[in-house]
Every structure is written in C-alpha cells, then in structure tokens.
C-alpha cells in the first residue's frame, strides 16, 4: 500500500540525491552502507533489549538507503545489478531486524513473542520470494496487504515505542504482522494460481 507513495517520495528525494551525487558516492555504495548500518543497529542494540536506540539507528540508515535510487537516477547509473543488489540487501536488512528482535525478546524471557518474531522473519522472506519467483516465471505479483514498507514501519514504530516503555505495543504489532504476512503470502499464491490457470507459462525446473 505504501508503494503508492513512491512517486511522491521520489520527487522529494531527487534534490537530496543530486546533492549526494556531487560527493561522488555511488548508488551501490549507498546500498551497502545503508544495509551495514541497519544490520549494526539491529544486531548491536536489539539483542540487548535496547529497542529505542536500535530503532533510531536503523531508521537513520533506512532513510539513507532510500537515496540509492535517487542517486542512480540523477547520475544515470541505474543498472540491473544495482536493482539486484538493492533487493538482496533489503532481505539482509529485514532478516537482521527481526533476528535482533527475536534475540532481544528471548533474552528478556519473552519466549513466545520471540517465536512470533521468528515467524515474521520467515514469512517476510516468503512474501518477497513469492513475488520474485512469480516474476521470474513471467507472472505479475504486485499484490499484498503487507509488503516490505508496511512491515518495516509497523515493526520499527512498535519497537521504538516499546523502548520508550509503552507496554503491549510490540506484542500487538508482531502478532498483527504475523497475520498480515500470512495473508499476503496467500494473496500472492492466489494471484499467481489465477494467472497460471488463465495463461499457463512453460514450466521451469524446480529450485
């Protein structure tokens, strides 16, 4: 749903991207730095149950990482490899965030909620893989009530509020994310199944 805001966000980021481009930093370097910062924030603070400061660090680097596309556009350095790198690093960042939450919750004695965080991690991977695999087979799969942007916003806002001492917010958010991610996987399976019935695509070897 938040993907509908991409054009507006792109217009806002373009002037910033132009300024960053003048420093000579490449889009791929921005992607790698942003991912490294998110991983450091997630695995450096979350396992210690320092959710507020971890969220601040992660958010700063998530915002920085958003500049890679803007810099690529203004410098004309868009490439398939850049898109591949960006998507792959997004998965690494997401895994680090939910793994950090899982470890922090487990160390704090919240074992059930740590299991929910693990479920959110795995289901998020499946959500992304389902779309990538569908598009690789020639289908379209741009559906889902909880895509990456929604999942990140919910998780980070809840973690930050939990770090400020607001009770039950993170618990509720992770359970909601677990449900929404499951629904999203179902939506993508249903979409691809419908397309496969209407216009079969030549089968490829299974992974």
Automatic annotation (TrEMBL):
Its main location: membrane. Keywords: Cell membrane, Lipid biosynthesis, Lipid metabolism, Magnesium, Membrane, Metal-binding, Phospholipid biosynthesis, Phospholipid metabolism, Transferase, Transmembrane, Transmembrane helix. GO terms for biological process: phospholipid biosynthetic process. The chain crosses the membrane at residues 29-46, 52-71, 112-132, 152-180. It comes from the Bacteria. Mg(2+) 1 binds at residues 65, 68, 86. This is Phosphatidylinositol phosphate synthase. The lineage of its organism: Bacteria, Bacillati, Actinomycetota, Actinomycetes, Streptosporangiales.
């Amino acid at each position: 749903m938040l993907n509908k805001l991409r054009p507006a966000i792109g217009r806002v980021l373009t002037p910033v991207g132009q300024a960053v481009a003048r420093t000579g930093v490449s889009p791929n370097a921005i992607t790698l730095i942003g991912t490294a910062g998110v991983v450091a924030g997630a695995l450096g603070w979350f396992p210690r149950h320092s959710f507020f400061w971890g969220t601040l660090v992660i958010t700063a680097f998530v915002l920085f990482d958003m500049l890679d596309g803007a810099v690529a556009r203004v410098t004309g350095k868009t490439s398939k490899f850049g898109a591949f790198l960006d998507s792959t690093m997004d998965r690494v960042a997401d895994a680090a965030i939910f793994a950090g939450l899982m470890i922090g919750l487990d160390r704090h004695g919240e074992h059930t909620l740590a299991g929910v965080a693990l479920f959110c991690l795995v289901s998020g991977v499946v959500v992304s893989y389902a779309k990538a695999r569908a598009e690789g087979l020639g289908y379209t799969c741009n559906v889902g009530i909880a895509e990456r942007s929604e999942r990140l916003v919910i998780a980070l806002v809840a973690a930050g509020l939990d770090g400020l001492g607001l009770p039950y917010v993170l618990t509720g958010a992770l359970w909601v994310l677990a449900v929404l991610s499951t629904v999203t996987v179902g939506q993508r399976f249903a979409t691809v199944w419908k397309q496969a019935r209407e216009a079969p695509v030549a089968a490829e070897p299974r992974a």
